[in-house]
Amino acid sequence: MGYEKIIVELLGRIQVLEEQVAVLMQEKSQVSEQEVNKITTDDIRKYILKLKMAAKDAGNKFIILKSGDIHKALNLKSAMPQVCNAMRQSMVEGDIVVHTTPSGNSSTIEIQYNVWWRVIMAKRYSKHGRRAGLFIGGVLFGLIRGIFFKNKYWGEWYAFR
Predict the structure, then answer these.
(1) How far apart are CA 9 and CA 3, in angstroms?
(2) Contact, 109 vs 99, CB < 8 A?
(3) Which of the chain's termini has less CB crowding within 10 Å, N or C?
C-alpha cells in the first residue's frame, strides 16, 4: 500500500532532526567553552584599576564607579556579588561608599575612589599595595606627630625625642 511512502517520509524527518540535534550540540559546546573562560575577581579589580588610571590621566581627583556599569561593561551575567566584592577590595583609605544596599551586592552600589598617588602604589605593589601604603602613611604620620605635636602622655611640646 502506501507504507513505503510513509517510511521514506519518516526517514526524511529523522534525518532533519539529527541535523538539528548536531547543530544544537555544536552551539552547546561553544557556550561551554565560553563558560570556561570566566572572568575572575582579580580581572575585575584590574579593570577598576584601569578606570582609576584613566581618571588620573584625565586630571580628575576622584572617580565614582557604579557596580551595574562595571557589570555591563564586562558583559557579565549573574556576577554582581563578584563585582561588588572587587569594588570593595579596590578601596583604600580615603575612598568613600556613596551608595550601598542592605545586601551589599546590588547593581546600584557606588564608590568614590580618590585617584592620586595611591593608584601608583596599587599598581607597583598590586597585591601588597594597600599594606605598603598604610605602613608608609603610618610611619610618616608618627614622625610628623612626634616632631610637631604635643605629647599626650607627658604633656609637653618637643621637637625630637
Answers:
(1) 10
(2) yes
(3) N
Q: Are residues 13 and 1 in the same domain?
A: yes
d(CA 112, CA 73): 18
Taking the whole predicted model, whether its pTM rises above 0.85 is answered as no
Estimate the crossing angle of helix 41-57 against helix 80-89, to 10 degrees. Answer: 50
Q: pLDDT (tens digit, 9 = 90+) per residue, 16-32?
A: 889 998 888 887 776 65
Report d(CA 62, CA 126) in Å as an integer.
20
Q: Which amino acid is at 66?
A: K
- Residues 18, 96 share a domain: no
106-129 per-residue burial string, b: 16 or more CB within 10 A, e: under 16: beebbbbbbbeebbebbeeeeeeb
